[in-house]
Structure formats: C-alpha cells, structure tokens
Amino acid sequence: MGRALLQAGRGGSIVNVSSQMGAVGYAGRAAYRASKHAVNGLTKGGLVSKIVKQAAPQTAAATQEIRDTVAQILADVEREGEAAVRRYSQRFDSWDPPSFIVSDDEIAAAAESLDGELRDHIAFAEDQVRGFAELQLEQLRDFETETLPGIVLGQKHIPVNAVGSYSPGGRYPMLASSIMTVVVPKVASVHRVVAAAPPAHANRIHPPQLHAMATSGADQILCVGGVQGLAALAFGIEGVEPVDMLVGAGNAYVAEAKRQLFGRVGIDLLAGPTEILIIADATADPDLVAADLLGQAEHGPTSPAVLVTTSEEMARATLAAVDRWLETWPTAEVAGQAWRDRGMWCWPTTTTRRCAWPTRSPPSTSRSRPATPTGTCSG
Predict the structure, then answer these.
(1) pLDDT tens digits, residue range 173-190?
(2) CB atoms < 10 A from the CB of 48, how many?
(3) Phi, psi (5° rounding) for residue 244?
C-alpha cells in the first residue's frame, strides 16, 4: 500500500531500502539483528547521532526450539513419508485432505472465481517477470575455447531437473512469490516445477495464488505448507518425485527447514524477515512515509521498519501518521506489533552523508525519490 501511494507522485525526498535479510531466518533474533545491523552500519559510519526509537532486544531462546522442531519434523517425514506429512499438516493447519495434490478441477474453479481485472493483473505480472528472466538467461552464455593447443575449456549451463517452489500463504497470499518462483525456473528450462502453498482459504490455497501458480507454468501443485510442505517437496509425496532444488520464502521454520535440507537439495537463499529502511528529509510526506513503513511491517510481527530522517518535525509527524493509519489499516494487528517491537527512528549527524551506508552495504532492493538528484542512493 505504501509503495502505491508513493508512486502516486506526491512530493518529498525519500529513499526506501527494503529486503529480506538472508542471515538466519529465525523469527525473533534475526529480526532484531536485521534492524540492529541496519542502524549499526549508520552509527559506526558516523551517520547517526542518536536513536530516538529503538527496537526491542531479543534473546536467542527461540532459536534452539525452532532448530529442534524442524529437525524432528524432517526426520519424521524422511522416515515415515506421507503419514508424517499428514500428521503435522493436521496439527498445524487442521488440514488432512484425501490428496495434497491440487486437481485440474480445483485450478479451474480458482480461475473462475477471479474477476477479469485481477486475472489481467496476474498475467501482466507474469509477462514482466518472464521478460526480465529471459533477458537474464541471454547473458548466461555457453562457450568453448582452446586456451592452448589441444586444451579446450568452456562452460555449459544445464538446468536442474526439478524445482520445488514454495509460496507463503498462511497470513497473506503472496502472489508475487508464486509468480517469480515458478516463471523463472520455467524460463531456465527446468523440466518440472512443483509449487506448494499452505491451505488458507476455506481449506484451500487462496484462489488468486493458485491461479498464479498454474498460469505461471507449475507442472504440479501441492496444498501443504510449513516445514512439512518443504519436506514433502524434498522427499516426495503421493507419487510426486523429490525435487532437486527448493526456492521461495517463508517464516522462521521454513527458513530453518531450507537450511537443514541444504545438501540433500539445493536452495536459493535463507530469507529472513522482510525489513525496510527509509531515509527521508524534511520535504517528505509523513503520511506516505508512515504507509511505506507499515507496508513492510505488515509482512510479519518480526519485520524491522527503520526511519532515518534529518527532520525531527517530519519524524514526529510520521509517528503520528503511523498511529492514524493503524486505526484503519487492514493488517493493523501484525503491522502494529512489528512497528511497536521492531520500529526504529534514527537521527543522522549530517545530510550530505546520509546515503553512504545503503550504497556501501546495500540491501537487496532500493528505491529513491529525491526532490533533487543530490545525495540520492543507488542500489
């Protein structure tokens, strides 16, 4: 929501840097480390003189519990197969269907339930992702060269045979994740893409999410989530063969499952909590800054949201705007908790160096909407 408002063209100088921290993925500790890492980079560089609102510290108490729980689930699924998947699916999601495999009839029903405008939006997003992936693929060139007489060296790109695409959907349906994690391997000529998402809508995958998976090119779709869903992809279930690689984001347990499964299968990365860092000056619109902070904070109660500003007046107006937004924000329960526990407001020492940290150690994505080109961030 925040990004949509910012794109509406209202004025101000804002730098928005957001990412999914690839550190560990543990809910509490990784989130605290994420926000602490962001601000430490600014503080050590002499860019922040004081921290006005600090994120609550977290202990490592939950970390071992997550590791042990995940290890137990993976061991049970590897040993017992489908029976263990069903047991954990029933325990965590109250979901024990006749089959975890989504049928063609269910896919068709999901498509029929969507209005034409939403289907068009999904198709547009797929085209954009596909087009960029094709451009990336063009840069991966096979070649051979004779470096010395009789010595031929080269490289050849060979796609893996099967990819498991996991899309979060327990709290909100992540359509973009469904599209990106299916379209990209299909462009790479992966023979088989198995998509999976948890049951969340009337004991089914959210219809828009299911439609996005199917139209993106998934060869098989499983309605099963969490660690048991990752295990089903890695070990196989109901005649669905094990995959070679797991991709996609998820909660702390999903991230830990990917970490423990690495080696048996390949993984893309360990994605921790989504975070955002906004650097804004006095001309920024507090309502837009507040909306963008909450737009990332709503990803989960452990998502850090950091504001660095040169203007105390704008910062206090932003804090007030956050409170106003939360009165009507659709995901206020989650976003509000994330802001209260993980929100930070920092005061920089200067304006001329305020972008040095994100350009020196940039998160995965950044966006700049400055009033003037001076001092903008690249990333």
Answers:
(1) 889 999 999 999 999 999
(2) 19
(3) -95, -20
Number of domains comprising the chain: 2
Res. 147: pLDDT tops 60:
yes
Residue 8 has pLDDT above 60, yes or no: no
Same structural domain, 283 and 301? yes
- Its pTM stands at 0.74
Instruction: Give the residue carrying structure tokens 């004025």.
Output: 11
| Sign (positive or negative) of CA dihedral 57, 60, 66, 67 | positive
HEC sequence for the chain:
CHHHHHCCCCCCCEEEEEEECCCCCCHHHHHHHHHHHHHHHHHHCCCEEEEEECCCCCCCHHHHHHHHHHHHHHHHHHHHCHHHHHHHHHHHHCCCCCCCECCHHHHHHHHHHCCHHHHHHHHHHHHHHHHHHHHHHHCCCCEEEEEECCEEEEECCCCCCEEEEECCCCCCCCHHHHHHHHHHHHHCCCCEEEEEECCCCCCCCCHHHHHHHHHHCCCEEEECCHHHHHHHHHHCECCECCCCEEECCCCHHHHHHHHHHECCEEECCCCCCEEEEEEECCCCCHHHHHHHHHHHHCCCCCCCEEEEECCHHHHHHHHHHHHHHHHHCCCHHHHHHHHHHHEEEEEECCCCCCCHHHHHCCCCEEEEECCCCCCCCCC
CATH number, position 185: 3.40.50.1980
pLDDT at 172: 75
- pLDDT tens for residues 225-241? 999 999 999 999 999 99
Same-domain pairing of 250 and 341: no
Residue where the block lists tokens 């590897």: 78
Confidence of residue 151 (pLDDT cuts 50, 70, 90): very high
Please state, in angstroms and rounded to a whole number, the distance separating the CA atoms of residues 181 and 158: 18
99 within a domain of the structure (yes/no): yes
What per-residue confidence (pLDDT) applies to 352? 43
For the stretch 185-219, pLDDT in tens is 999 999 999 999 999 866 799 999 999 999 999 99
Q: What is the pLDDT of residue 61?
A: 57
Q: For position 39, which CATH number holds?
A: 3.40.50
Measured over the CA atoms of residue 16, residue 345, residue 289 and residue 311, the dihedral's sign is: negative
